[in-house]
Write a structure and sequence with these properties.
Elements lengths: L20 H52 L3 E9 L2 E6 L5 E4 L3 H6 L5 E4 L5 E4 L3 H8 E4 L13 H16 L1 H7 L6 E5 L6 H11 L3 E6 H4 L6 H15 L3 E6 L14 H18 L7 E7 L15 E6 L5 H11 L4 E2 L5 H7 L5 H17 L4 E2 L1 H18 L13
Parallel strand pairs: 7-10, 7-11, 8-9, 9-10, 12-13
Antiparallel strand pairs: 1-2, 1-4, 2-3, 4-5, 6-8
Helix pairs in contact: 4-5, 4-6, 8-9, 10-11, 10-12, 12-13
The structure holds adenosine-5'-triphosphate.
């Protein structure tokens, strides 16, 4: 910054007592002119200083904004591989790039090799993350032998047949596909309204084939750190290959595989990366042996069609709300262990629960039991079911749930 020139000297006035009046007047006029000059120079300088202050203020504002942006920019997740005298060797999740990087002395004391860390664009370690086991445990549910059996599923006969054919057969009789010379379906996508038995179907097939059931919720895959979702997908498939035969079940797959939106936020980019990882795991699937992949969604209309291509989720099975006969069966299944009074008319209840899901019917039976308990009884009567039905309807109205044919066919 250039230095400002020195301020002009203050004009001085010297009046000689010998001066005539005319000379005095001339000297005063000259002095006045000098003062006006100095004043003009000072005002000009003040104007410059004010302008400089405004510019500096703008510069400060701009720097503050940049600082804020830097603070909120997404960080990348990496594993600290080795602590050396020159810094820390980290391996970035997502691209597996190894980098020797810096870390502040305070953070360095906290890091042990193997820890997960978050790094910025220049790979400087910003923070140490919680242990990976927690993130994995939170996101994945592993069940060595789920207890659900096919006969606990009401209705869904055609869907059960299709799932068995697409998932069970390739696990149990892979040679029959080889003999015929066809590839079994890569992935099975169950789509339909919430609570219709999609998860049950996947669990039942895992039970029947003695496969480990590994469930991951799509919403858990959408992590806040860059590279984390993709890493969880890799972990999911790695875990499955350690536990084969295994059924990988990705619930709410729409969370990671929605149609591309126009917004370009870093969150969207991260979801895209996670989906790409999922697609690449599925594309390299032939070598995987005894792992079958299933997914579920209640937003089929939102799915990115890329995940439905051959070799990916290429078997689509719709799981709708139960029809009357299925509702009757679901009522039977969920009242098996209850003491039911003679006056209970299941035909009537099946008729009155049109538009309800299997999960709704399960709640209905539990609620009816609660009404009986409140009344000091152990036997459940028709009135209890009627009260439970009223309560469910009221709850639905409160939560704004729309039932029975009032939604467009693609949205559940
Ligand atoms: N067809 C059915 N037969 C028997 N019970 C059912 C049926 N459908 C749902 N249920 C009951 O509802 C519960 C929830 O079902 P499930 O989790 O399989 O639904 P979902 O379709 O996977 O739901 P979401 O889309 O919300 O994940 C089940 O544990 C079961 O008790």
């Amino acid at each position: 910054m250039s230095r400002s020139p020195p301020l002009p000297d203050q004009p001085t006035l010297e009046l000689d007592p010998e001066m005539t009046d005319r000379e005095r007047l001339a000297a005063l006029r000259e002095h006045f002119a000098e003062i006006v000059d100095v004043n003009a120079t000072l005002e000009e300088r003040l104007g410059d200083a004010r302008e400089r202050r405004t510019n500096l203020r703008e510069e400060v504002d701009q720097l503050e904004r940049e600082n804020e942006t830097l603070k909120t920019t997404s960080l990348y997740v990496a594993t600290a591989e080795e602590l050396t005298e020159d810094g820390i060797v980290i391996k970035q999740h997502g691209n597996n790039q190894e980098v020797l990087t810096e870390v502040s002395p305070q953070l360095r004391d906290e890091i042990e090799s193997g820890d997960r860390v978050a790094v910025n664009d220049s790979f400087t370690v910003q923070t140490v993350l919680e242990t990976e086991k927690d993130a994995r445990a939170q996101a994945m549910e592993v069940d060595e032998s789920p207890e659900v059996t096919y006969d606990e599923i009401g209705g869904l006969h055609e869907q059960t047949r299709e799932v068995r054919e697409a998932v069970e057969e390739p696990l149990e009789n892979p040679e029959q596909f080889e003999t015929v010379g066809i590839e079994p379906p890569s992935g099975v996508l169950l789509h339909g309204p919430p609570g219709t038995g999609k998860t049950m179907l996947a669990k039942a097939v895992a039970n029947h084939t003695d496969a480990t059931f590994i469930k991951m919720a799509g919403s858990e895959l959408v992590q806040k750190f860059i590279g984390e979702g993709a890493k969880l997908v890799r972990d999911l498939f790695e875990l499955a290959s350690q536990r084969e035969p295994a059924i990988v079940f990705i619930d709410e797959i729409d969370a990671v595989a929605s149609k591309r939106t126009d917004s370009k936020t870093s969150g969207d980019a991260e979801v895209q990366r996670t989906m790409m990882q999922l697609l690449s795991e599925m594309d390299g699937f032939e070598e995987r042996g005894e792992i079958r992949i299933m997914a579920a969604t209640n937003r089929f209309d939102m799915l990115d069609r890329a995940i439905l291509r051959p070799g990916r989720f290429d078997r689509l099975i719709e799981v709708p709300n139960p029809d009357e006969e299925a509702r009757r069966k679901i009522l039977d299944i969920h009242t098996r262990d209850m003491k039911i009074a003679d006056d209970v008319d299941f035909e009537d209840l099946a008729d009155r629960t049109e538009g309800k899901s299997g999960a709704d019917i399960e709640s209905l039976t539990t609620e009816a039991g609660m009404f009986a308990i409140r009344d000091g009884r152990t036997e459940v009567r028709q009135d209890d079911f009627a009260d439970a039905l009223d309560k469910l309807e009221a709850d639905d109205d409160e939560s704004g749930i729309v039932t029975k044919g009032s939604l467009p066919s693609y949205a559940y």
